[in-house]
Design goal:
The protein contains 5 helices and 3 strands. With 88 residues, it is α+β, with helices and mostly antiparallel strands. β2 and β3 form a beta hairpin. The longest helix is centred in the last third of the chain and has 18 residues.
Length: 88
């Protein structure tokens, strides 16, 4: 869970997740939305993959990135349990 919160703490990575919410994208398509190098985008994707927030799939010569909704469901369940036990 620590990797998830670390990944979510960065605004660039949150923006990448917002983009992937709409549709699966390649690293090149993701990089078009940012004013930074492609290696920097790749590093952000590596962190998101390490936190299991994003999965990748090779299709032909391209690698497409998509959200791993299972992890988001786990986060939501944890948050509900946390707040339910805390009495908020």
């Amino acid at each position: 869970m620590n990797d998830v919160f670390k990944a979510l703490s960065d605004p660039t990575r949150r923006k990448i997740l917002d983009l992937l919410k709409e549709k699966d994208l390649t690293a090149g398509e993701i990089s078009e939305h940012f004013n930074m190098s492609k290696p920097s985008i790749s590093q952000h994707l590596k962190v998101l993959k390490g936190a299991q927030l994003v999965v990748d799939e090779k299709k032909g010569q391209y690698v497409f990135y998509s959200l791993n909704t299972t992890v988001f469901q786990d986060i939501i369940n944890w948050a509900f349990e946390f707040y339910g036990k805390g009495g908020c």
